[in-house]
Design goal:
The chain is α/β, with parallel strands linked by helices and 226 residues long. It has seven helices and 15 strands. It has helices spanning 10-21, 35-44, 61-66, 84-89, 102-109, 165-171, 212-223, and strands at 2-6, 27-32, 49-52, 73-78, 94-97, 123-128, 131-136, 140-146, 149-154, 158-161, 176-180, 183-186, 192-194, 197-200, 203-206. The strands form four sheets. The protein has a five-stranded parallel sheet. The protein is globular, with a radius of gyration of 19 Å.
């Protein structure tokens, strides 16, 4: 997995590089001390994962991420906890609060979806209680993010899984849409949309502010409007 580091403090860069060196599947292709240089690099190169600091010179990490077209997976590394909510609303994989251990770093990286040339999303395997359950994607009604794990709801059962919300979106078919930082819904089960709420039968789900436009575009496309 190709990754880059955007971090203006060299000691913090060295810690991330040290941790990456202990993970053979990770390849550091470049590191930067500001977001402007990183943006120039990403215009000509691709990366699977960005380790992104927030308190950067000239352009903050948050503003960099907001303006980055088609961003790759992002793990925020910051000394400031107050930006965590905004970070997750921008769909980051994880938020590491400095100083963080290798164990915490490894846990964050393990949430990044694996890249594959031939993805299959007709079914998935969910690890629950030290077992793996094969579940058809079409059986999943919705997924709820809950701290360090997700709750996968089908009509017959609820499963706990440690994959991040962003990982689910990359693994599930196009019939799934993220309507909120905490919710992914299967369009096949949506029965009603009213204002800022989506319904699956009698269950009610909020539409997040940053996801509203995508939800509205989905509604218009399914209603046949041009």
């Amino acid at each position: 997995m190709n990754c880059i580091i955007i971090e203006d403090q060299l000691p913090a860069q060295r810690i991330i590089k040290k941790y990456l060196a202990q993970m053979p599947a990770m390849k550091l292709i470049q590191s930067f001390q500001n977001a402007i240089d990183a943006s120039e690099f990403l215009r000509a190169h691709s990366a699977d994962l960005i380790f992104l600091d927030i308190n950067l010179p000239k352009i903050s990490g948050i503003n960099f991420l907001k303006n980055l077209p088609n961003p790759p997976n992002v793990i925020i590394t910051s000394a400031y906890a107050q930006y965590a909510l905004e970070g997750f609303e921008l769909d980051v994989v994880d938020y590491l609060l400095k100083p963080f251990s290798f164990e915490r770093f490894h846990k964050a990286v393990s949430k990044v979806p694996a890249t594959t040339n031939e993805p299959s999303n007709d079914f998935i395997f969910i690890r629950c209680d030290k077992e793996f359950f094969k579940v058809k994607s079409s059986e999943i009604q919705y997924i709820k993010g809950d701290d360090d794990f997700t709750r996968v709801h089908t009509k017959r059962k609820m499963f706990l899984d440690n994959r991040a919300m962003k990982t689910w979106i990359s693994e599930l078919p196009s019939s799934f849409i993220r309507i909120h930082r905490s919710y992914i819904l299967n369009l096949e089960y949506i029965t009603r949309i009213s204002g800022q709420r989506v319904f699956i039968d009698n269950m009610e789900f909020p539409i997040g502010r940053s996801h509203k436009q995508r939800v509205m575009e989905m509604i218009e496309s399914k209603s046949g409007k041009e």
